[in-house]
Amino acid sequence: MIQSKILTTDTTLALGQKKIMQKSLVTTKRQHVPLTYQEKLIGKLEKMVREHLTEHLTIDSLATHVAMSKSGLYRFLKKMTGSTPGRFIRDIRLREAVFLLQSQQYQTISEVVYAVGFEDASSFTRLFKKRFGKSPSTYVKSVSRRNTEGKGSR
């Protein structure tokens, strides 16, 4: 009786480990799955936006770049990302601004604003705060503080 309980427990453990192994194999295999056409298309759109950050990008130019109509691009982005084309562009610009603020490549926030294609600092600040929960200047201070604390602990 005791031996059968041990056997059952061992079998259960072995099955549990087998399931874990299968999950990790699935995860490992998933990393090598080629991108879908939709994922490639979104990547192509993101690349275009990043390459033309400082320019006035239009939805027409994005649609033309991926051989879609404006309405087709709108439907595609809404379905795949939940964003409109305008918000898609704006989100990429804001993420790029975060990267530039973290890297501290620019002296002022105004330089970052224009480097990522916004036309005025006040709308940038409003959108940044809405998206990330803090103003760009507060964000820069927190990044600076983290960098200073990181260097001091070495």
TrEMBL record:
InterPro entries associated with the record? Homeodomain-like_sf, HTH_AraC, Tscrpt_reg_AraC-type_HTH
UniProt keyword Plastid present: no
Q: What is this protein called?
A: AraC family transcriptional regulator
Name the lineage: Bacteria, Pseudomonadati, Bacteroidota, Cytophagia, Cytophagales
Query: What positions does the domain HTH araC/xylS-type occupy?
Result: 43-142
In its keyword annotation, does this UniProt entry include DNA-binding? Answer: yes
Q: Which organism is it from?
A: Agaribacillus aureus
Sorted UniProt keywords: DNA-binding, Transcription, Transcription regulation
